[in-house]
Amino acid sequence: MTRRGRPSTSWIVPLGLGAVCALLAIGSLRSSLFAQQTVSGLANGGIYASLAVALVLIYRATEVINFAQGAIATFTTYVAWQLMQWGLSYWPAFACTLGIAFGGGFVLELVAIRPVERRGSVLSVVIAAIGLLILVEGSIGWIWGNEVKFMPTPFPAHIYTVGGVAFSRQDLSTIAISLVAVLVLWLFFQFTKVGLAMRAAAVRPDAARLVGVRVSWMLSLGWGLAAALGAVAGMMAAASPSVLLQPSMMDGILIYAFAAAVVGGLESAAGAVVAALLIGVLLNLVTTYVHFVGPALQLPVAFVIMLVVLLVKPSGLFGRTRVRRV
Amino acid sequence: MAALLELEDVDARYGPVQALRSVTLAVEAGEIVAILGANGAGKTTTLRAISGTVRRTGRLELAGRSLARTRPEGAARRGIAHVPEGRGTFAELTVWENLRLGAHVRHGSLKADARRVFRYFPWLEERRSQQAGTLSGGEQQMLALARAFMQRPRLMLLDEPSLGLAPIVVAEIFRILRELNAGEGTALLLVEQNARTSLSLAARAYVLEVGAVAFSGTSAELSSHGSIRRSYLGY
């Protein structure tokens, strides 16, 4: 949304992003600690990005932030853990979990959201989502108990050394998998008939119905895809040595993902990805170099970033300015 | 031989407000029919009743099969393309994506259909990756028609295609509509404020007054009818 009478700020975002990338590159070349922290920040950012894109996906279709997204991701991670307990090896369990998450998300929309949405306002959907959060988190504890589980990691503790800087295979794989997941989703939306129909249903449901798109199915499909993406985030998070598999595993991550989605402009998946990576890197660097910021202060730092971006550019980094001629 | 579209005693309401009262009309295959009437007479509602975007009762049939339980998604699948007022283009999507959406209910390759559409709207081809919202009003209306045509409908419902457009653009649009009808045999049911232009295009017309059909007849009959001329044609 552009506001009349305000100077254009379109140059700020590319310039700012360029400056940040340049700083990160220079820092990484000069200090190996800086380079390591940047890469492991990108890995965290990749996890935030998957979850943030899931939030954007549902926001675009229903204008609601799905507060249950993190809990659903945790639930699906437990499903993966359970499959491995039953003897599946990691990658088959990973693939099965994606399928189960997709089906589960689809059914959740059908059962929990659609009846509320049909007769209610956006607010009632928000409340349904919060109810879902409580329900899903509760059922994790009920099914699997509240004690911490140990999730096997698919990445052997291997270190790659490039130019004297050591990168863990864990971090690099997490970045790659998250970005591939987001990329696959993007390709789906750009190039398939169903993807296009989902976009049409999100922007103009009435017009989409008139060309024959079954809009309500598109919403369920969106929940399914979001849940699958959340499952990627959950499994990547649980594979990281710093995150423990417990019912509240994704709570913190959901907040960073939410910050990323807002900073990115809420309607833009690309914006959410860029913002998530930035948040991941900045948080990591700040905790490394600014000594009074321990893990306890990471969350406030994330909010400061969010606040600054929204003050400079209220529609978010990639918030779409709607172009429309009358 | 049954008509392509038949409405008999169709009522429609928005909440407590009754918008249509036992409307009866028919469109033959390949025919151009206009619906005329003042603002609020129920012209748009008639189209919406056909495509199922408003709650309605009565007998509605397309090619002998009932439409009464068909919702908009289903109507599109049955071969009805509804171009709503305000065009219904997806402003956020590109021209080509709009055209792809038009073919949503169809299967197979779009290439042949696209080639046919570009015959009628040659300028669309070179602007296929342009965002639809940046087109001018007339271009958006043409894109809406092109998109509806991608659906290969048996019946097109057109709601005020001339609304807000310059006379020269309106003339162009009506020329293309005539071509589409002649070349593809698509039946058109046209709602218009612009009565004179639509009677020149349509073979027959219905005149609605407060939700009911007040007159119907061939365009020639209606143009020569004294009170209709005074009320709707203004000469």
Strand order of the largest sheet of chain B: 6-7-8-3-9-10
Class inferred from helices and paired strands of chain A: mainly alpha
**Terminal-residue CA separation of chain A:** 15 Å
- The CATH class name of chain A reads Mainly Alpha
Please give the domain count of chain B: 1
What is the CATH topology assignment of chain A? ABC transporter involved in vitamin B12 uptake, BtuC
- Oligomeric assembly: heterodimer
CATH class of chain B: Alpha Beta
Number of helices of chain B: 10
Q: Which CATH architecture of chain A?
A: Orthogonal Bundle
How would you spell out the order of helices and strands of chain B?
EEEHEEHEHHHHEHEHEEHH
From the spread of the alpha carbons, the general shape of chain A counts as: globular
Helix percent of chain B reads: 25-40%
Sheet with most strands of chain A: 2 strands, antiparallel
Largest sheet of chain B: 6 strands, mixed
Mind telling me the C-alpha Rg of chain A? 20 Å
Tally the helices of chain A.
Answer: 12
Structure notes:
The complex is a heterodimer of chains A (326) and B (235). With 326 residues, chain A is mostly helical. Chain A has one domain: ABC transporter involved in vitamin B12 uptake, BtuC. Chain A contains 12 helices and 2 strands. Chain A has a two-stranded antiparallel sheet with strand order 1-2. Chain A starts with 11 loop residues before the first helix and ends in a 14-residue tail after the last helix. Chain B has a single domain, classed as P-loop containing nucleotide triphosphate hydrolases (Rossmann fold, 3-Layer(aba) Sandwich). Chain B is globular, with a radius of gyration of 17 Å. A 6-stranded mixed β-sheet of chain B has the order 6-7-8-3-9-10, sandwiched between helices. Chain B has helices spanning 43-51, 72-77, 95-102, 111-120, 122-126, 137-150, 167-184, 195-201, 219-224, 226-233, and strands spanning 5-14, 17-27, 32-37, 56-62, 65-66, 80-83, 155-159, 187-191, 204-209, 212-218. Classes of the chains: A mainly alpha (326), B alpha/beta (235). Chains A and B meet through helix 7 and helix 8 of A and helix 2, helix 3 and helix 6 of B.
